[in-house]
């Protein structure tokens, strides 16, 4: 080295290397943070995932509420309907099922095969999506009952 006395404020080569390494590390972290902020695609994916999760949670909550309200409405209808009327409704339902079965057989005999295939595909899709269809039907029933009750008041 040199014969000059060392000044306290002058860093040693080891200290300089350490400062350089620390500065590089900070710079690397800063670059990563900036790159993360600039990555719009990744941010959009994260936001989409968050929105999907929120929507799924809300849908689950609403579905539960609809099921509960539909159950309450069905129980209310059962409680308020006189027994003779329930009996007649049951008989009418049996008669409708019987008539429908006969009409279905007649339609199946006279319907062309391509139409039958399409109908089978539609029935399979309905069976595969039974829960959403039932929930939608229950929601419509509840809506109609509420609308009907409000109209009477």
From TrEMBL:
This is Alanine-rich protein. InterPro entries: DUF3618 (IPR022062). Pfam families: DUF3618.
């Amino acid at each position: 080295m040199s014969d000059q006395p060392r000044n306290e404020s002058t860093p040693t080569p080891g200290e300089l290397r350490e400062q350089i390494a620390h500065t590089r590390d900070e710079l690397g972290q800063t670059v990563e943070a900036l790159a993360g902020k600039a990555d719009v695609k990744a941010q959009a994916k994260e936001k989409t995932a968050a929105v999907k999760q929120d929507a799924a949670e809300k849908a689950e909550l609403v579905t539960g509420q609809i099921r509960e309200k539909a159950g309450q409405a069905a129980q209310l209808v059962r409680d308020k309907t006189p027994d003779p009327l329930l009996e007649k409704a049951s008989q009418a339902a049996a008669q409708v099922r019987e008539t429908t079965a006969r009409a279905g057989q007649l339609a199946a005999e006279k319907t062309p095969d391509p139409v039958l295939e399409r109908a089978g595909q539609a029935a399979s899709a309905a069976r595969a999506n039974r829960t959403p269809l039932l929930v939608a039907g229950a929601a419509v029933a509840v809506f109609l009952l509420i609308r009907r009750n409000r109209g009477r008041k």
